[in-house]
């Protein structure tokens, strides 16, 4: 197919070497306006694609932000649980030492020497 530009009116003329027909009519000549309309249709399609892409990006950004907030909440919860764990370990050590002291002071838990009782 051969394309030329008519310098006088700025329109394009396509000359087909094959038998190009559209709906039984020859589709040999296309004006600059028809080409611009086709380009505008592509721009509209492109704008719609861009809009869809922007909506998808916005959705993904919102999802990332939500996940970041969830991660922050979970990190804070983990820190709180660690502090509680340390506090409970300390309390357990104190209680364990207290129980040991009670057992050593009580005669019920004293070891008996069997040799000294026989004599």
UniProtKB/TrEMBL annotation:
Annotated keywords: Coiled coil, Cytoplasm, Golgi apparatus, Membrane
Subcellular location: Cytoplasm, Cytosol; Golgi apparatus membrane; Golgi apparatus, trans-Golgi network
Any Pfam family: DUF2205
Gene Ontology CC terms, in alphabetical order: cytosol; Golgi membrane; trans-Golgi network
UniProt topology in membrane: Peripheral membrane protein
Coiled coil: 57-91
Function: Positive regulator of amino acid starvation-induced autophagy.
Family statement: Belongs to the SCOC family.
Protein name: Short coiled-coil protein A
Protein's organism: Solea senegalensis
Top-level taxonomy: Eukaryota, Metazoa, Chordata, Craniata, Vertebrata
